[in-house]
Amino acid sequence: MEFKVANPEALPDAAKWLIDNAGDKRVFVFQAPMGAGKTTFIKAICDFLNVEDSTSSPTFSIVNEYSSAQGPIYHFDFYRLKNEQEAFDLGYEEYFYSDNYCFIEWPEKIPNLIPEDAAIVQIEVADDQSRTIKLK
Fold first, then answer.
1. Do 55 and 46 contact (CB within 8 A), yes or no?
2. pTM higher than 0.90
3. Cα 48 to Cα 35: distance, rounded to the nearest angstrom
4. Is residue 2 classed exposed, middle or buried when 0-12, 13-18 and 19+ CB atoms within 10 A define those classes?
């Protein structure tokens, strides 16, 4: 399943499409190269979910928690992790298995810790700078 994003103005529609098509999934892993728009897309998803807080990249804090009507939403950026033990130290299990939304950037840093039923979101950048978002 995929959604074409021609420009940033289409991100709210892409966010709605993703949540509507993910069923009961709550853990989302985002696979895309640096600069593809993972954080920007997660912000659009948080807007769709009526997050009350300002959203930003958790690159230095590893995880940001946002308030919403659905409960807390967790946004992870594992780019700076050196190994999976750091995710254990963070208590990742409490987040991933909380039944709250978890959006994970750089999941390749913790491949053995991703829940089997996580939704895989791939973002591909075309030559014209449009994006194709795939949900697996």
1. yes
2. yes
3. 22
4. exposed
